[in-house]
Write a structure and sequence with these properties.
alpha+beta; about 100 residues
Length: about 100
């Protein structure tokens, strides 16, 4: 585990390939119905045309929030959307690491 990036757990804004994402605008939904936790990041400005860029942003956000080790070993899938269905519970980026850790238990 020594070669993995360690989480800082404090959300921060990201600029990647010309796309700027404010941390406070991002929400996270967890899918606990699988052996590994599925994660959907809700980023309001997401578009299908820029999916590759936003997927890169998602990995940066997750590495920052959870650490590279947890992302590589405990996450089943990662998706990005511009909005969440009404029935889906979402978490702020600041609450997300705690919710993820709680779901592991």
């Amino acid at each position: 585990m020594d070669n993995y990036k360690i989480p800082c757990r404090e959300p921060f804004d990201i600029e990647y390939s010309g796309v700027k994402v404010k941390a406070e605008s991002v929400k996270v939904a967890l899918d606990l119905e699988r052996s590994k936790i599925g994660i959907t990041l809700i980023i309001p400005d997401f578009t299908e045309e820029k999916r590759k860029i936003y997927t890169g942003v998602a990995y940066l956000i997750l590495d920052q929030a959870l650490g590279e080790y947890d992302v590589e070993t405990k996450v089943g899938y990662i998706d990005v959307r511009s909005s969440a269905p009404a029935a889906v519970k979402v978490h702020s980026l600041s609450d997300f690491p705690h919710e993820f850790d709680s779901a592991q238990k």
